[in-house]
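note to self — DONT lose this again. spent like an hour looking for the file last time. sequence + predicted structure for the chain T wanted, 233 res
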Amino acid sequence: MAPSESRPVPCACGVSAGARLLALLGVLAALAGAATAAAGSSPEPRLAIKPAVQARAQRIAVGLGDLPGFGWKVRPAQSDRASPRCTYYRPDQSKLTQNGQYTAPDFTRPDGLFVSSSVGIFRSPRQAREAYALVVRPELARCLGESVVKSGKPGRITLRSAGRLAFPGHGDRSAAYRVVFAVKSGNQQVPATIDIVAVNNGAVDVAMFFSSAGKPVPAGFERKIAAAVVARI
């Protein structure tokens, strides 16, 4: 399904085309961030940050050492990775409390791969389970896809599909989703994907984000990173 994890995903169209794919991926990542920052009152969890818990959340998140291959660049996260909001999907977590909340930096590679994650540590395992159940639903992928399309210039991004992604189980409960787009670049329609892997284990909820332009994110690549993150919970 994909090249070896130890090598960048090849692009047959040359260096300049690879740069264009990375630029398109940046557009998708930025629009996904904009789509999750909807106006209006926030239904996100309340924060009662405890330094030790916050440090644990940071340790759990995806780090540069988890990423195989070379050429990774690190930059501050472009959004807080809040849940997207649509008329049919607006999870209200405002009655829940997080003692730790951390969004990892954005990790990008010249071949068009993007990785990031968000970790929330709740006051109790019960609250984390409730938060997971509110957010991790089939509507999540569809809402994210539609929100990204609406946040872009008219006609630039087309939503192709949004649904469950086969993925190994992790923690107490987990799920994965894939959103597939076509992004207009000049006269071409370039395929692009955003994958979300969500895990709940005890009081910890983790969401991992993977994106790729040109080809889907390699399955083995995602699974290796997810396993490393879950092992630190």
